[in-house]
Amino acid sequence: MSWLVAAPILVPLSTAALCALAWRSIPAQRGISLAGAVALLLCAIGLLAQVAGGVQVMQMGGWKAPFGITLVADTLTAIMVLVTAIMAVAVAAYSLGDIDPVRERNGFHPVFHALLVGVGGAFVTGDLFNMYVWFEAMLISSFVLLALGGTKEQLDGAIKYAALNLIATAALLLAVVLLYGLTGTLNMAELARLVPQVQNQGTVTTVAVLFIIAFGMKAAVFPLFFWLPASYHTPAVAVQAIFAGLLTKVGVYALLRTFTLIFVGDTGWTHGGILLWIAGFTLVAGALGSLATKDLRKALSWQVVAHIGYMVMGLALYTPLAIAGVVFYLVHDIVVKTNLFLGAGVARRLSGSSRYEGMGGLFRSAPILALVMFVPLGSLAGFPPLSGFWSKLVLVQAGLAAQSWWIVAAALVTALLTMMLAGRIWAEVVWKAHPAGDLAGLGGFSPGRRVALVAPLVALSLVTVTIGVWPEPVMDLAGRAALGLLDPAPYIEAVLGAPAPQPTMVGELPVTPAAPGQGGAP
């Protein structure tokens, strides 16, 4: 047992509380917020090191599973917590130059860390009901962050966001209740043992579809994604960035966890059927939506939808290589989407608009910023050797190995449409002249604000380049996470303290490391 398993909850919770105590001092809140994010990063690094020795479990209050509240960290959990912490540091630093005093006085810093509490709790929970609770914590915090500022556009986006996510919450609660009625437990390790023993597996599949609806709406998959483009472009840039980077990925994580651990009895229907079709439509719909709009922030919001499709595609293919590709894609996409929204915020500040016709001149006024922004934009498009190239390549290879030709075609078409969008953004935002003439550039900002706005972009771009040039460490971690998901025996035994069932069969192949080039984990 390690207390670091609880750190993704305790550290941001403590930071939020300290920020609230320092309510009257904005400088103190800023310092506490940044220090708390750094502390979370250090704990996340420690947690990743510890899970190398095996699954880490904490039984709250001394109550053993499945009766008490269980916190669990395996390789996937540790990866997600680490990437979350990196984004928390980047966004906390960026917020020092982005968030206006009104939003700060109204509680941005404590609510930001309260959001991280919900994200961290969803990653480390070992219980489906508590996952529902952490989703609720995220919903409340994100609604407040969306509404901070009180503009008409923000309130409209916040209402749409809350209303549609409440539907997802109701579906999740209904699914949880039905699953409890079938098994008498909500501990995920215990569910992995009991769900295959339920006599009416048709009912289990129906409950699984409810979980797809609930988590799919959180992840913004087709046709449940319309709330995202309607709301993500409305709040402050720092809020946009953390939403785009993390919130939908928590939904993907929930799908990944439940559909590799619990609902694995009818993969031909849930994975190769529903999830595969959802992935295909999500890919193409998101890419087309991004090309149809003339607003940079809305285009990037649609791209959040499109690239969720790649992750659901990997889960649907359900092979070791595909699952490893999902984990790799999660890491890449969280970094790139956060960076793109942060960069779009700086570009909007310089140009005075987020619509293409009102933008331009970035290369002439801020060439270094333009070059830094090329990295996440190129990675989004999949240019080698950036991280986006490798993440797409692994999933395409997995699709070809599974002979799922049409989903590979959808993935390649989406990649082509994304390249077209990247070219449009570069031409409209960076290369062309601004309609009002030369811009003032970054020199118009104070030195402190300039560092706060640009340093996170540079840091995240370096992360993207490092993953692209040296993908082996991330791919190795992704492969370990994939094998842990497809062979849940160590997870179950660590939580329940009893021998687990034999590894689940995937198609006709047992979940074991395959040789390179044969669909196994890289």
UniProtKB/TrEMBL annotation:
The chain crosses the membrane at residues 6-23, 35-55, 75-96, 131-149, 161-182, 202-228, 235-256, 268-292, 304-328, 362-383, 403-422, 451-470. It is found in: Cell membrane; Membrane. This is Na+/H+ antiporter subunit D. One of its GO terms (molecular function) is NADH dehydrogenase (ubiquinone) activity. Pfam families: Proton_antipo_M (PF00361). Belongs to the CPA3 antiporters (TC 2.A.63) subunit D family. It is a multi-pass membrane protein. Keywords: Cell membrane, Membrane, Transmembrane, Transmembrane helix. One of its GO terms (biological process) is ATP synthesis coupled electron transport. Residues 126-418 form the NADH:quinone oxidoreductase/Mrp antiporter transmembrane domain. It comes from Aerophototrophica crusticola. Signal peptide: none annotated.
